[in-house]
Structures are given as C-alpha cells and as structure tokens.
Amino acid sequence: MRSVAALQRELAALLPSARVAHGERHLELPSNGIEAPRVLGASVIEGAAMQSHRVPLPPVPGFRAFLDGTQHSQVVMHLGNVPLVFGQVSAVVRERRDRRMHTWGAPLAEQRFYVARSSLEAVMWNTLAGHLGHELVDVSEGQAAVPHPFALRDAAYSRVQAHRESLELRLADRWCASERDPLFMDGGISGSDKVADAECTVGVVKSHRILYGDATAIEIILALASGERSSVFRIAPPKRSAVASWYLRIRDPAGHDPMWGLVRVETSYPATTSAEAIGARADEVSRWILAEASPLALPDSRWDKMVYAIRDCEEFLRAIS
Predict the structure, then answer these.
(1) I need a surface site. Which of 43, 78, 221, 231 has the fewest CB within 10 A?
(2) Distance between CA 246 and CA 51 in Å, rounded?
(3) Beta strands 100-115; 82-97: pairing state
(4) What is the pLDDT of residues 254-302, one digit of tens each?
(5) 17, 34, 68, 98, 189 from 200: Cα distances, Å
(6) pLDDT digits over 17-72, tens only?
(7) Which residue stretches of the chain are H helix?
(8) What is the pLDDT of residue 31?
(9) Cα pseudo-dihedral 231, 234, 237, 238, rounded to 10
(10) What Rg, from alpha-carbon coordinates, does the chain have?
C-alpha cells in the first residue's frame, strides 16, 4: 500500500488549491468516534428471566482459528473546509496448528478515500473521482452534508469502520464455505446472514457502549463473577441478522470497573431449540472462550477482554501493513 506521505504529494499535485493536513492524529484514537452509551432491550431465550450461570469447569480449548481486522484513518487534506479522509483496513484468519499460529488463506487489505461530495464543487469531485476511481467514497450519499468539518470527519470514520467489518465478514464467509471447525471472531457476527447462521462462527464483543437488558438484567450482568455467564438472549439489530447472545466474565473484576473482563458472545440464533439446549450450547462455547484467557494478551491495554490469539492477528496485520 502507498504511504500517507506519498498520497499527500500525489493529491497535492492533482489539487493545487487543497491544503495538506500535517500532523493529523489517527481517527481511531480514543478521543475520536466514541459512540454514546445506550441501553437496549433484549428478549431472554434461556429461561423466563435474566440470571447468572456458573460455567462448568474445566475450560476446554475448542477454537481452531481466529479472525480479526484492523483499521487506520486520518485526514490527509482539506478541500476548502471539507476534510478528505484516507482509510486503510485489513483482516486475517490465523489458524492454530501444533500450538503455533499460521495464516489461513490470504489476508485482505484495502484502502479508500472518504469525502462529502455534496460539500464540494463539482469540478473538484470529478477530478478526484477521475483519479481515484472506486477508491473514492461519498460520505454524504447524495444528501446535503452537515457543514461542520468534525461531522464530515465522523461520517468518514463510520464508513471506515463499516469497510473493515465487510472485510472481516468476507473472510468469515470464506471460512464457513470450506471449514466446519469453530472460528473465533473479534466482534459481532450479525452483519452477514451467512456468518450469523453458521454454527462454526462465534463472535466475541469487547466494547460495551451498548448494554442489552432492562435495569434488573444489567445489574445481574455487571455483577457476574469470573467464570460466570448471563442467560442467553436474542438481539436483532435493524438491518442485521438476529443472533443469540450472552455476557461472560473471563477475569476477576475485583478492584476494577464493572466492565473489567466482561465480553458479550454472539452465536447463531436457534429459533426452534429448547431452552436447555440453548444453555448447554452457551456453556460449551463459554468453556472454549475461558480456555483462551491464558496466556495474557499483554502488553495490549485491552488484555482483560482480549485473547492472545486475537492479539496475534493484530500483530500480524501491523507487520504487513
């Protein structure tokens, strides 16, 4: 892939009136793109109400492979007051064989530019489109763009996130088409019908800007001890596939905030399965996840929720980007 500096030189020659953005931070830094915390309802499908469940011991390794993606985005130029964002995304499946990690298939890596077409003069958009082709993405989607530069930047950031997810789901689709062994996915699985319906995919979500349940359910979830899980519930986000989900505490939260060591698991939604079978499946998958809690994913700051094999995926992608 081209470097940011090379891209800036290339675009500066193409658009002499644009201002190169020097020293811009990556939009992925914690101060940027933070989703407002929300609480959403969820329907419990294991029993009548939310409860805590002790996962049967011992933890048992069950995952053959692990999938994760990375993204990097930053403002590279200002076209008048309109930011032009450059985004790079990548994804990989790393397979464990003989206790060592190997790359399964071919990793994916793509790059795009993001700008609000409705905020640009037609000649500037046409110049960019003629040079960048399919790599240029309109974040305004034909609608009148909000003139605030930060709003335009945030719209681009959301598109980069969606692009990264699409690469992850593309790799998951490939895995499901040729393999049957369990695949650990960092993040949710509901973005693809094929992936969400596959029995071999398990999504593990580390971010909890959205909590599922009512006030009583959330109290139970946040009080989970290490090795405990919540009841299984159904979630069906708009324009995404329904999945079965539950919370699992993989580390002791004593002395830490309520989210410490807490992950949310997503699997295919068993519409016709009994509550007992749903619980048994949740216990089985939870044992697999608990088995991945060691070795620690240090020095990553998210080590309380991240498994070591996912850190391996990220390190691999950093090495090839």
Answers:
(1) 43
(2) 11
(3) antiparallel
(4) 999 999 999 999 999 987 788 899 999 999 999 999 999 998 888 988 9
(5) 52, 31, 16, 21, 11
(6) 888 888 777 887 654 545 789 999 999 999 999 999 999 999 999 999 999 999 99
(7) 4-14, 122-132, 149-178, 193-197, 215-222, 275-291, 308-320
(8) 47
(9) -160
(10) 21
Q: Per this entry, what is the length of the chain? A: 321
Residue 225 has a CB neighbour count (10 Å cut-off) of 12
- Using CA atoms, how far apart are residues 60 and 8, in angstroms rounded to an integer? 50
User: Which runs of E-coded beta strand occur in the chain?
Assistant: 19-20, 38-40, 43-44, 52-54, 65-79, 82-97, 100-115, 136-138, 183-186, 201-205, 210-212, 228-230, 233-235, 243-249, 262-268
Amino acid found at 183: L
CA atoms within 13 A on the CB side of 231: 21
- Which residue reads 């891209």 in tokens? 7
